[in-house]
């Protein structure tokens, strides 16, 4: 079957940080149009596409959301020599930025820059044990200071520059697999849903500003007020040195999250669907509200039944985030079957304790 | 473009084959003779029978890289690759970078535990090389072993591109910029014997150059290098070494060489006479092949012409294209003045 992998690769090399998701939105909107008659962009920049279900009277309303933004930086100061200092727009580990190529988005166009590093020849042994904080890092545009001042403004946004690398076993590596992988899942789900008759009205949503505090999810959850709101977001792939309950194997299917902030019955239903359709899955446990859009959905408007699913990726918040396209497909299968089976009886049961 | 081809070629120290083949192709039919020696140096010769001083130009083909040393077979690390560096690499520049393993360029990435899972005190410290892995997407050790074996070398997967103002970024300008200068120089005619030595294993101790110089026994030798440049914000001027865009650098003293003052002054004066910007390299650290060459046999007169390279030994290095051009102009001027007898032994 034809899939959305090439589209995912395009999304991963598209630049869009919190509050400037426009370029990603421009890729996503036409894709959603192939599945939905109505695609709208709200005041925050969230994209909402509605695919109506079949049936008379009240139909279940399910919202599926993936955030479009990637972690970014913002130009905070132009230093002598034309070097740029930056601040966070999302959570980078500064240690992963050293020697990185980045793109500075100026009003006159994009400029390539290199995050500087000190040559080993000049580095004293005692310096080698230190990790530079973000405030000590600088961006090098290889331009005279006067030219930099003409072209770059304080507040210009900065994102990583990284091609996509196709690794073994349908795994891909690059920047912003968090959360472009979930945009691919969203589209793969809609693709599969086209083969089912479903009662539910599906609101396929691409949210903004997740990386700085789930801000898009808060407003779109309120605006749509679905019966069930499912956030699709990446989780931690297994890697040496991580706790067992924070490590999910790649190629072992999507992780379905369980915890106080997520609706127990939606969780259980997702697990049942996976079991019945022989979809591999893993269970992720949370003890606090999750760090994903499902956190905001739970308390949007009158309160919503929230769920969280997603694929594991390694090296989250670096330029080499690595995940498996097989997991993306399995996650889409899970969501398509869940939606196809959703009915009003289940919806009414969500408030019965 | 030759600098792009050379920059993107695979050639970690001891694995210079691809670079050598690129250079051989470039010089085919343009020199009298080309030979490889037992170490893997490529030596191109022009006018061996001509009178006058025997001049050796040197550029090293190798770059710093990585070597796969273990294919992990355990639990969470199954299928990941342990590695060590080939040449001097600060482990802090390795995190979050793609690499290519072997001449077949198997892609892999060097990642890190997500920031979310790092304790605050962990974040203060660099991640040591022992805790880094190359991930090729293998499901397990057997899967990894089907394409990679211990001993395979890897390079950074950096593309060459021009950016900024007359600048280029890429990997291994140390010393592919020297290789590009030397290829170009060998295409010109001089009235004396000219030997172009493209050497191996500079990054682990100037090893190829030593053997090459012994074979050539030159009267005059010039190493063409990419050198340390750290003219960035916050760097003290004495630690900058060189300044990008201010022309090629001449050495007074480095870790292996105290410059032959007569030859250094000759090159400096030549630059002045020809209106070529030139600068003195301002640190003692680092070295280049001339450090090995000048101690061969009864001793060799000469020096080096260096192109400033920002972020040398890091995945993405930066050079000024003006500096590259001016280094070529200076080299041509020096070769011409040697022919005219401006420098006598």
TrEMBL record, chain A:
Pfam families the UniProt entry points to: Peptidase_M42
List of catalytic residues: 210
Keyword Metal-binding in annotation: yes
Positions bound to Zn(2+) 2: 178, 211, 317
Keywords, sorted A to Z: Aminopeptidase, Hydrolase, Metal-binding, Protease
GO BP terms: proteolysis
Residue intervals passing through the bilayer: none
Cofactor(s) this protein requires: a divalent metal cation
Keyword Metal-binding recorded: yes
A GO molecular function held by the record: metal ion binding
Binding-site residues, Zn(2+) 1: 67, 178, 233
Entry's cofactor comment: Binds 2 divalent metal cations per subunit.
PANTHER family: AMINOPEPTIDASE (PTHR32481), AMINOPEPTIDASE YPDE-RELATED (PTHR32481:SF0)
Family: Belongs to the peptidase M42 family.
Protein name per UniProt: Endoglucanase
Species of origin: Alicyclobacillus hesperidum
UniProtKB/TrEMBL annotation, chain B:
SUPFAM superfamilies named in the record: Aminopeptidase/glucanase lid domain, Zn-dependent exopeptidases
Active site: 202
Protease listed as a keyword: yes
Entry cofactors: a divalent metal cation
Pfam families: Peptidase_M42 (PF05343)
Listed GO MF terms: aminopeptidase activity; metal ion binding
InterPro entries, alphabetized: Peptidase_M42 (IPR008007), Peptidase_M42_aminopept (IPR051464), Peptidase_M42_dom2 (IPR023367)
Chain positions recorded as Zn(2+) 1 binding sites: 60, 174, 225
Signal peptide positions on this chain: none
Gene3D superfamilies cross-referenced by the UniProt entry: Peptidase M42, domain 2, Zn peptidases
Organism superkingdom: Bacteria
Record's keyword terms, sorted: Aminopeptidase, Hydrolase, Metal-binding, Protease
Any one biological process term the GO annotation gives: proteolysis
Residues annotated for Zn(2+) 2 binding in this entry: 174, 203, 313
Binding note for cofactor: Binds 2 divalent metal cations per subunit.
Family: Belongs to the peptidase M42 family.
Designated name of the protein: Aminopeptidase
Organism lineage: Bacteria, Bacillati, Bacillota, Bacilli, Bacillales
């Amino acid at each position: 079957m034809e899939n959305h992998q090439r589209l995912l690769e395009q999304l991963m090399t598209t630049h869009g940080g919190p509050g400037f998701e426009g370029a990603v939105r421009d890729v996503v909107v036409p894709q959603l149009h192939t599945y939905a008659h109505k695609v709208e962009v709200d005041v925050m920049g969230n994209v909402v596409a509605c695919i109506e279900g079949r049936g008379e009277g009240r139909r279940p309303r399910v919202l599926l959301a993936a955030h479009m933004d990637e972690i970014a930086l913002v130009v905070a100061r132009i230093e002598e020599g034309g070097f740029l200092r930056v601040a966070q727009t999302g959570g980078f580990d500064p240690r992963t930025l050293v020697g990185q190529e980045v793109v500075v988005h100026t009003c006159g166009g994009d400029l390539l820059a290199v995050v500087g590093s000190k040559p080993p020849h000049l580095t004293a042994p005692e310096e080698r044990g230190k990790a530079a904080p973000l405030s000590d890092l600088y961006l090098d545009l290889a331009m005279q200071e006067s030219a930099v001042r003409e072209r770059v403004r304080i507040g210009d946004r900065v994102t990583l520059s990284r091609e996509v690398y196709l690794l073994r076993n349908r795994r891909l590596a690059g920047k912003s697999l968090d959360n472009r992988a979930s945009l691919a899942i969203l589209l793969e789900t809609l693709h599969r849903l086209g083969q089912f008759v479903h009662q539910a009205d599906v609101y396929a949503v691409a949210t903004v500003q997740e990386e700085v505090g789930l801000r898009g999810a808060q407003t779109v959850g309120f605006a749509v007020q679905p019966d069930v709101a499912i956030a699709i977001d990446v989780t931690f792939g297994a890697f040496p040195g991580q706790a067992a309950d924070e490590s999910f194997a790649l190629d072992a299917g999507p992780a379905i999250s369980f915890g106080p902030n997520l609706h127990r019955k939606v969780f259980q239903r997702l697990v049942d669907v996976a079991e019945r359709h022989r979809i591999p899955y893993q269970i992720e446990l949370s003890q606090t509200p999750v760090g994903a859009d499902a956190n905001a959905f739970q308390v949007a408007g009158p309160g919503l039944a929230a769920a969280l699913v997603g694929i594991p990726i390694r090296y989250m918040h670096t330029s080499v985030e690595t995940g498996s396209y097989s997991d993306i497909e399995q996650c889409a299968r899970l969501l398509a079957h869940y939606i196809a089976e959703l009915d009003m009886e289940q919806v009414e049961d969500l408030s019965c304790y | 473009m030759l600098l792009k081809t050379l920059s993107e070629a695979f050639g970690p120290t001891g694995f210079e084959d691809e670079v050598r083949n690129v250079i051989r192709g470039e010089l085919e039919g343009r020199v009298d003779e080309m030979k490889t020696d037992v170490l893997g140096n490529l030596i191109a010769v022009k006018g061996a029978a001509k009178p006058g001083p025997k001049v050796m130009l040197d550029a090293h083909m190798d770059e710093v890289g990585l070597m796969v040393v273990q294919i992990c077979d355990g639990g969470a690390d199954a299928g990941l690759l342990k590695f060590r560096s080939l040449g001097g690499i600060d482990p802090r520049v390795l995190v979050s970078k793609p690499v290519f393993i072997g001449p077949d360029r198997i892609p892999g990435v060097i990642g890190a535990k997500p920031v979310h899972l790092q304790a605050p005190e962990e974040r203060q410290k660099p991640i040591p090389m022992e805790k880094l892995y190359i991930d090729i997407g293998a499901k397990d050790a057997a899967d990894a072993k089907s394409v990679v074996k211990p001993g395979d070398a890897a390079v950074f997967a950096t593309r060459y591109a021009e950016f900024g103002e007359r600048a280029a970024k890429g990997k291994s300008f140390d010393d592919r910029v020297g290789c590009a200068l030397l290829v170009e120089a060998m295409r010109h005619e001089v009235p004396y014997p000219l030997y172009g030595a493209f050497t191996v294993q500079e990054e682990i101790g100037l090893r190829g150059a030593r053997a090459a110089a012994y074979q050539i026994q030159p009267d005059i030798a010039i190493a063409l290098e990419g050198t340390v440049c750290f003219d960035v914000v916050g760097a003290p001027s004495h630690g900058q070494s060189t300044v990008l865009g201010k022309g090629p650098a001449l050495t007074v003293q480095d870790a292996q060489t105290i410059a032959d003052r007569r030859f250094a002054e000759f090159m400096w004066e030549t630059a002045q006479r020809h209106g070529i910007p030139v600068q003195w390299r301002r640190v003692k650290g680092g070295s280049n092949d001339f450090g090995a060459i000048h101690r061969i046999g009864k001793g060799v007169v000469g020096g080096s012409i260096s192109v400033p390279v920002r972020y040398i030994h890091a995945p993405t290095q930066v050079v000024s294209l003006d500096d590259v051009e001016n280094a070529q102009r200076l080299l041509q001027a020096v070769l011409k003045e040697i022919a005219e007898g401006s420098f006598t032994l």
